[in-house]
């Protein structure tokens, strides 16, 4: 087997590895990320209910003289909890836009452009480029090179 055949086989194995192993794993990772995002969104909804409950308890406690301190403490807890929720919502937005959406777009592009037909074309072009480099010759691209 010649050096160019070895390089061609290695290139083909890399692309097949991307199609057969990496992309399905990445797709699974994106799916799990979406489930995680959905779960955190559910936690956010529940936390808002908890926050509203703390505020109501604080209001009730503040109305009476004996439990005014308790009411103030509940208001402080509610405020801290609200700030944490705002931060969590911001992190969720970033998680979605910066990670999940980007990975999903890249995965779709990989699937679109690394299909078996385009994979064969990429392998042939890569093989021809390697042949040109190995023989120290430069050829202009021509559709006739790809059969």
UniProtKB/TrEMBL annotation:
<dbReference type="GO" id="GO:0051764">
    <property type="term" value="P:actin crosslink formation"/>
</dbReference>
<dbReference type="InterPro" id="IPR013606">
    <property type="entry name" value="I-BAR_dom"/>
</dbReference>
<dbReference type="GO" id="GO:0007009">
    <property type="term" value="P:plasma membrane organization"/>
</dbReference>
<dbReference type="InterPro" id="IPR027267">
    <property type="entry name" value="AH/BAR_dom_sf"/>
</dbReference>
<feature type="domain" description="IMD">
    <location>
        <begin position="1"/>
        <end position="113"/>
    </location>
</feature>
<dbReference type="GO" id="GO:0005829">
    <property type="term" value="C:cytosol"/>
</dbReference>
<dbReference type="GO" id="GO:0051017">
    <property type="term" value="P:actin filament bundle assembly"/>
</dbReference>
<dbReference type="Pfam" id="PF08397">
    <property type="entry name" value="IMD"/>
</dbReference>
<dbReference type="GO" id="GO:0030838">
    <property type="term" value="P:positive regulation of actin filament polymerization"/>
</dbReference>
<dbReference type="InterPro" id="IPR027681">
    <property type="entry name" value="IRSp53/IRTKS/Pinkbar"/>
</dbReference>
<protein>
    <submittedName>
        <fullName>Zgc:158689</fullName>
    </submittedName>
</protein>
<dbReference type="GO" id="GO:0005654">
    <property type="term" value="C:nucleoplasm"/>
</dbReference>
């Amino acid at each position: 087997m010649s050096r160019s055949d070895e390089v061609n086989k290695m290139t083909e194995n890399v692309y097949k590895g991307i199609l057969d192993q990496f992309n399905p794993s990445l797709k699974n990772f994106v799916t799990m990320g979406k489930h995680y995002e959905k779960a955190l969104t559910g936690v956010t909804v529940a936390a808002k209910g908890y926050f509203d409950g703390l505020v109501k308890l604080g209001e009730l406690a503040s109305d009476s003289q004996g439990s005014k301190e308790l009411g103030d403490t509940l208001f402080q807890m509610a405020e801290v909890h609200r700030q944490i929720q705002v931060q969590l919502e911001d992190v969720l937005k970033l998680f979605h836009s910066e990670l999940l959406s980007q990975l999903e777009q890249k995965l779709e592009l990989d699937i679109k452009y690394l299909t078996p037909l385009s994979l064969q074309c990429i392998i042939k072009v890569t093989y021809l480029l390697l042949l040109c480099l190995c023989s120290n010759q430069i050829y202009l691209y021509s559709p006739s090179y790809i059969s």
